[in-house]
Amino acid sequence: MLSILRSIWYTFLHAFHKRETQGYPEKLPYLPPRYRGRIILSRDSDGNERCVACNLCAAVCPVDCIALQAANDENGRRYPEFFRINFSRCIYCGFCEEACPTYAIQLIPDFEMGEYDRQNMVYEKEHLLISGEGKYHGYNFYNVAGVDMGVKGTGKGENEEAPVDLKNLIH
Amino acid sequence: MKFVFIIAGVLISVLTIAAGLIYVERRLLALFQDRLGPNRVGPFGLLQVIADMIKIFFKEDWIPPFADKAVFVMAPGILIATILLTFAVIPFADNFIVLDSNIGLLFFLGNSSLGVYSIVLGGWASNNKYSLLGSIRASAQMLTYEVFMGLSLVGVIMMADSFSLRDIVEAQRGGWFVIPQFVGFVIFFIAGIAETHRTPFDIPEADGELVAGYHSEYSGMKFGMFFVGEYMGVTLISALIATLFFGGWLGPSFLPPAFWFFLKTAFFICMFILIRASLPRPRYDQLMELGWKVLLPLVLLNILITGGVLIYTHSL
């Protein structure tokens, strides 16, 4: 009997609690910086595409929503000829971001992707590519990697020493 | 002419309140559950009522081919008719009453007994196992709670010395009956929840077990009539509690009497919704046990004590 009255009283007190519901379109929710939302392709600090078309994202994707085709530019550097994400399949798991060796593919805090036509959920490379560096500033894969792809000369990279001249006895 | 105005006034206000309660209940339940509730249609979502009405009027009104058609159509009407008839004897203010009957309270009890037919026939005519189970439960529950709903009012009748609701309110000028008849008030409230089969006692509907109980097969406005009938029942019981135990239209004179009546009624409607928000549904046998083993002896004891005290004070 008392417990019934007590639960009625406690329920009444809930009238003065903070609301769990947020008035969404007027009051936007707070999304943390690491929120896994819409996928973008970023550029490095020189403004070049970071993506090297290694296909790791497409391989790790559990729902196979990423499709891309690799190609080589005049310096021999790999880039995606097309890069297509079907967001009507994407489950926003973030595996592609974890797999990416160059920080090219990133998930950003944006979920407002409603469309009237299902075909509009398929994003091509020009929709995915942004002009900035996304979450990781100052990182350029080819500045760290050893291979010369027209970004840096041999031995000019970060954490890299100039190549040893084998014919010079002074070393 | 005045008579027609009173009837129209009562009818319009009761129907408007019953329809508005759909919105009020959703907003209040949201309030108690830390949500916002419907707030999109119009200012504060007030036009939600109109949107709901338009929706339910345009829904397909389907009568199942296996149903007993005449009874199936009649059942929701009985519910609305019995409840609306009962509002005739309720005094909204000193002279704002459709029928100042000297058996007003008996008229209410008789009508609420007739209301059982609506649910029993509705479930029977649906020709559906779940509906029938719901209406069997409803008939047992409502007969049980009818018994001491009537008995819980005997104390009030003895103190007011009248069955007329107007006389009962007048008898409360010295003090509200809720103080000497507190047991009667609590039992009438519990029985009222069971009569309107609202949530702690919504065993006839029990959507977890019986789909929707007696109105499983109803759709469109016929379902809407059961729905509105439930809210009219809530309004009726709240109005009766205000009249019988809380002095009806009596109150300080800076507000009109009818306003006091509506204020008290609104308070008990909110209590109905608060109880719905907080209490779970008991098992069927628990409901019956509570009725026959606890509430019935308690209400008989209440009558005995009230009678004893009245005889003692009269003999002085």
Blueprint (SSEs and pairs):
The complex is a heterodimer of chains A (171) and B (316).
Chain A: H1 2-13, E1 39-41, H2 56-60, E2 66-72, E3 78-86, H3 95-99, E4 105-107, E5 122-123, H4 125-128, H5 141-144
Antiparallel strand pairs in A: 1-4, 2-3, 3-5
Chain B: H1 2-32, H2 48-57, H3 69-86, H4 104-126, H5 129-152, H6 154-160, H7 165-170, H8 182-195, H9 220-245, H10 257-278, H11 284-315
Helix pairs in contact in B: 1-9, 1-10, 3-4, 3-9, 4-5, 5-8, 5-11, 6-11, 8-9, 9-10
Protein described:
The complex is a heterodimer of chains A (171) and B (316). Chain A has 171 residues and is an alpha+beta fold. Chain A has helices at 2-13, 56-60, 95-99, 125-128, 141-144, and strands at 39-41, 66-72, 78-86, 105-107, 122-123. In chain A, the strands form two sheets. A three-stranded antiparallel sheet of chain A has the order 2-3-5. In chain A, strands 1-4 form a two-stranded antiparallel ribbon. Chain A is elongated. The radius of gyration of chain B is 20 Å and the shape is globular. In chain B, helix 4 (104-126) packs antiparallel against helix 5 (129-152), helix 6 packs parallel to helix 11 and helix 9 (220-245) packs across helix 10 (257-278). Chain B has helices at residues 2-32, 48-57, 69-86, 104-126, 129-152, 154-160, 165-170, 182-195, 220-245, 257-278, 284-315. Chain B has eleven helices and no strands. In chain B, 42% of the residues are buried. By secondary structure, chain B is an all-alpha fold. The model of chain B has no long low-confidence stretch (mean pLDDT 85).
Sum this structure up briefly.
Chain A is built from 5 helices and 5 strands; from the N terminus they run H-E-H-E-E-H-E-E-H-H.
Structural class of chain B: mainly alpha
Q: Helical amount among residues of chain B, as a percent range?
A: 55-70%
Major beta-sheet overview of chain A:
3 strands, antiparallel
The total of helices of chain B stands at: 11
How many beta strands in the DSSP annotation of chain B?
0
CA-atom Rg of chain A in angstroms:
24 Å
Question: Shape of chain B, please?
Answer: globular
For this structure, the CATH topology of the domain at 30-142 in chain A is Alpha-Beta Plaits
Tell me the structural class of chain A: alpha+beta
Q: What overall form of chain A do the CA principal axes indicate?
A: elongated
What about the largest sheet of chain B? none
Strand content of chain B: under 5%
CATH class of the domain at 30-142 in chain A: Alpha Beta
What order do the strands of the largest sheet of chain A run in, or round the barrel if closed? 2-3-5
